């Protein structure tokens, strides 16, 4: 029986645990929080921080693992690559992962290699960014160089907001660094979906439409997704070509990716993020619903050195699919949920992550998500209508 170490223990790891078990593997989940939800479904738990590469390596060697994977966790991606390199296990190149996982290095790499990239600059501390605030044309986005889930992300429209935004970003950063980048006004929706490569060749590339809740505590935390994307086909083709070039140049190998892109109002297409791990909002599960393709299974097969099931070169969508990220408008205690109208009629799955009496918080990042609603609609108009009016059809009771 092969042993797979999974870095992270949130419920987003569950699909990888299930896939590994179906493949006959023994699963060890690993993080510094013994009470995390996914640990109850693995075969063993290892208490070690996923960002401590040396500690993870020591544990992996002691446990004699056959594969390591940071499935839906940014925090563990570098450690997974580090361990794979040290133990000669299947995995992505350490240097390439280090570039992709650091927003400052990633922006520099894109610029140096001729990709479209907004003006960006990394800072060692909030004070440095505040002192440099006069050099920017506003608005700008300020964020940590190395965190996910929209933690510590702010948009500021004048120099006056730089000091507070930079402090927030630095506090949310693992390495205590931040990046400021020019805000790109977008045409239509931005995209945030998962894709897959084999031997550094992009074999499965998907785009979606990403939605936000403007009334949330953090309006930059994703609140909904729709497949297929309405981004113009020429822009999708350009982005697919550039994503494929980036993966080849970095020689990332065989991997799942969470990829964010944006089409600017001037028609320029940007790769905003490309991380060699699954998206944290069940995006690969949604693609399994929408296209029938199971890149979760492929990801686990790759990590264990198994042959990968055939993957089609282009996704084929079975209708119109959406995901609502359920969240609270206030701090308090969860009482229940009511789903009505078109949302109830089109609901395929309602997956709540909380129980009555659990503490919930206003939506500021992915960690404040309390559930997901999967929708399957007969038309794009129907799907968008539900997600745009979700508050009138889904009531989350908090006291």
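-> sequence recovered:
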């Amino acid at each position: 029986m092969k042993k797979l170490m999974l870095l992270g223990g949130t419920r987003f790891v569950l699909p990888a645990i299930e896939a590994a078990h179906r493949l006959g593997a023994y699963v060890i989940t690993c993080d510094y929080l013994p009470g995390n939800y996914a640990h109850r479904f693995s075969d063993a738990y290892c208490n070690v921080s996923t960002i401590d590469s040396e500690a993870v390596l020591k544990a992996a060697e002691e446990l004699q693992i056959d594969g390591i994977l940071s499935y839906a966790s940014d925090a563990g991606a570098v450690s997974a690559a580090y361990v794979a390199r040290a133990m000669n296990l299947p995995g992505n190149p350490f240097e390439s992962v280090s570039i992709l996982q650091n927003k400052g290095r990633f922006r520099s790499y894109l610029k140096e290699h001729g990709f479209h990239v907004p003006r960006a600059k990394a800072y060692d501390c909030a004070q440095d960014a505040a002192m440099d605030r006069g050099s920017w044309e506003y608005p700008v986005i300020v964020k940590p160089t190395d965190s996910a889930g929209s933690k510590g992300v702010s948009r500021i429209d004048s120099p006056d907001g730089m000091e507070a935004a930079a402090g927030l970003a630095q506090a949310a950063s693992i390495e205590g660094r931040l990046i400021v980048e020019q805000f790109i006004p977008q045409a239509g929706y931005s995209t945030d979906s998962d894709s897959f490569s084999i031997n550094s060749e992009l074999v499965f590339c998907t785009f979606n439409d990403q939605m936000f809740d403007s009334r949330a505590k953090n309006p930059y935390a994703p609140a909904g997704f729709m497949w297929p994307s309405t981004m113009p086909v020429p822009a999708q083709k350009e982005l697919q070509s550039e994503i494929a070039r980036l993966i080849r140049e970095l020689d990332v190998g065989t991997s799942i990716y969470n990829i964010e892109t944006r089409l600017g109002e001037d028609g320029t297409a940007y790769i905003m993020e490309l991380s060699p791990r699954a998206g944290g909002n069940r995006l690969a599960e949604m693609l399994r619903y929408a296209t029938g393709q199971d890149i979760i299974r492929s990801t686990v097969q790759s990590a264990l050195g198994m042959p990968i099931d055939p993957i089609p070169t282009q996704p084929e969508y079975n209708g119109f699919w959406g995901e609502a990220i359920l969240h609270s408008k206030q701090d308090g205690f969860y009482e229940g949920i009511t789903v009505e109208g078109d949302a109830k009629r089109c609901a395929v799955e309602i997956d709540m992550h909380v129980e009555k009496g659990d503490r919930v918080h206003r939506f500021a990042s992915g960690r404040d998500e309390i559930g997901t609603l999967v929708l399957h609609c007969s038309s794009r108009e129907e799907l968008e209508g539900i997600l745009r009016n979700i508050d009138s059809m889904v009531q989350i009771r908090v006291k």
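The longest strand covers residues 255-263.
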